[in-house]
Design a protein that fits this description.
about 280 residues, twelve-stranded mixed β-sheet, two-stranded antiparallel ribbon
Length: about 280
């Protein structure tokens, strides 16, 4: 039985990959860089270089009209005994700025498809055949906010795409440090670490002309067991997407159900459901 409240931090992606393990036992002791030590002793809790790297990443992402990001991810759930259980899965995000995307997440425990066509946000459960929707906002960022605020729906890796437009995200950062350059697959990336009140998170950003996120690790401090979410990302910045690619067409046997809002109202017709659609058949 999973512990209540152990669903993980924001940026959930059902959506989640095998973590990397550093060979501490086999190699020399890890040397902590001087700037990391400064952050640890409180003399410089926010390294401007870390914030600058995030700003550069965000600025580059905003230049991408259409893109696809795929990858694997791992999320941890915590049992009432305190034991952590990991679940893996994949994600595929196709986005076209300013107002369209399709997100597909697959794992052994849950499959979801999410669509935004500039007018309507739809979430579909292929296994159960149920889908629900609500009238969307005018942009990706505003729709992400509405899904989270009004319906409790967390979109995969959402905060990555709103860093440059949501200034409250910067104000929530309490500590930030540059860790060191590292290799993720065949990419040279800069490892950064950040702390907020309820979440610690790490991000690896590709060095060079394409400052894209290569990997993320998020630690949920709301739970004493501190479960983590890990995602490794691969980017296609030359992707194309037509309106048909991003539109939701219900299968013939699909059933529309209500999208339950956090305010108590429902959107749609037919059977009532939780904000992330019914889990029946899963």
């Amino acid at each position: 039985m999973a512990r209540s409240g152990s669903r993980g931090p924001r940026l959930k992606s059902a959506l989640w990959a095998a973590a990397l393990f550093l060979p501490f036992a086999a190699g020399p002791a890890l040397t902590v860089p001087a700037f990391a030590q400064a952050a640890e002793d409180g003399s410089n809790p926010i390294d401007p270089a870390a914030m600058k790297a995030m700003d550069a990443m965000s600025a580059y992402l905003l230049t991408l009209g259409t893109f696809r990001v795929t990858g694997e991810a791992t999320t941890e759930q915590v049992l009432v005994t305190g034991q952590k259980i990991q679940f893996g899965g994949t994600f595929d995000i196709l986005a076209r700025r300013p107002n369209a995307f399709k997100i597909v997440t697959n794992s052994d425990i849950q499959n979801r498809e999410m669509y935004y066509d500039g007018k309507t946000f739809t979430i579909f459960s292929p296994r159960s055949g149920y889908y629900a929707d609500f009238p969307a906002a005018s942009s990706i960022g505003l729709t992400i906010d509405k899904a989270r605020r009004d319906y409790g729906v967390e979109l995969p890796l959402a905060d990555l795409f709103t860093w440059g437009t949501d200034q409250t995200m910067r104000s929530r950062v309490r500590e930030a440090m540059v860790v060191r350059p590292e290799t993720i697959g065949d990419r040279k990336c800069m490892h950064l670490a950040f702390r907020q009140e309820k979440v610690d998170w790490q991000i690896w950003i590709e060095e060079g002309a394409r400052p894209l996120p290569c990997k993320m690790v998020i630690t949920n401090k709301d739970d004493p067991a501190m479960p983590q979410y890990t995602a490794v990302l691969r980017w296609d910045t030359q992707a194309t997407a037509t309106a048909a690619d991003l539109a939701f067409t219900p299968p013939p046997d699909a059933k529309r159900i209500k999208m339950a809002s956090l305010g108590g109202g429902d959107v749609g017709n037919g059977k009532n459901a939780a904000s992330t659609t019914a889990n029946e058949g899963e």
